[in-house]
Amino acid sequence: MNTKIASLVAASIAALATPAMAQSAGDAPFTGVRVGAEVGYDHIRSGSTEDVDNTRDLKQSVDGVTYGGLVGYDFAAGDNLRLGAEASYSGSSAGTDYNNDNPTVFNLGNVKADRDIYVGGRIGYVTSPSTMVYLKGGYTNQRYSLTGTDGTTTLDGKLDTDGWRAGAGAEFAVGRNAYIGAEYRYSKYSKGEVDFEGTTPDGSRFNLDTDRHQVVATAGLRF
Questions:
Q1: Residue 48, helix vs strand vs coil
Q2: What does 136-185 look like in DSSP terms, one character per residue?
Q3: How many of the other CB atoms lie within 10 Å of CB of 169?
Q4: Integer Cα distance of 201 and 129 in angstroms
Q5: Looking at residues 66-76, what average pLDDT do you find?
Q6: Most buried of the four, 82, 129, 174, 207, by CB within 10 Å?
């Protein structure tokens, strides 16, 4: 999975970089290679088609802090239009602990959010030399750490979930090469696969319905 994703990241950025390779961040605002970091609020919840809260009050969401890094490339497709590709790798503190006295469900069971990989593109519009607004979308793969027990036997595993992400944000130039920004994004995960540790066979892919809302602050450099 990671090898395929890494290849897709490289191909996406290279494809967009080729027609504007000679262009640097100094030629036009909000163009060139960029690297950055992000941190913000993370809310993950069971989707509407998987509502299991019909007989008792069960917690179906987890909240936490998302944090990670990103790399991207943007080029000018017009005086104010920008097109780009980006990839990010992030973690999250969102999770829920098993408690027999206070059962929780999160569509996926008792889980801890692990790493998230995102690969996608974006389209931006420069409203001033120091401000750009944009829309983004692409593929996301979220991994969860799972712990299940029947009181005697405990099984640990990983759950990989596939989905899509859409978002919108604003970016602000700070000096010649630095930038800061803010972004909202929504992710929908619809496929999952459980990878058990040890000799337990891995599970087959199955359907799921999980929603994710994130609001993050970003900061980085352009080259």
A1: helix
A2: EEEEEEEEEEEEEESSS-EEEEEEEEEEEEEEEEEEEEETTTEEEEEEEE
A3: 20
A4: 55
A5: 97
A6: 82
Residues 126, 29: Cα–Cα separation, whole Å: 8
- The residue type of 61 is S
Q: How far is CA 43 from the centre of its chain?
A: 12
pLDDT in tens, 121-178: 999 999 999 999 999 999 999 999 877 655 555 567 788 999 999 999 999 999 889 9
C-alpha span between 156 and 111 (Å, rounded): 10
Contact 90, 142 (CB under 8 A): no
Q: Which two tokens stand for residue 120?
A: 């996608």
Q: Per-residue pLDDT averaged across 199-208, rounded? A: 70
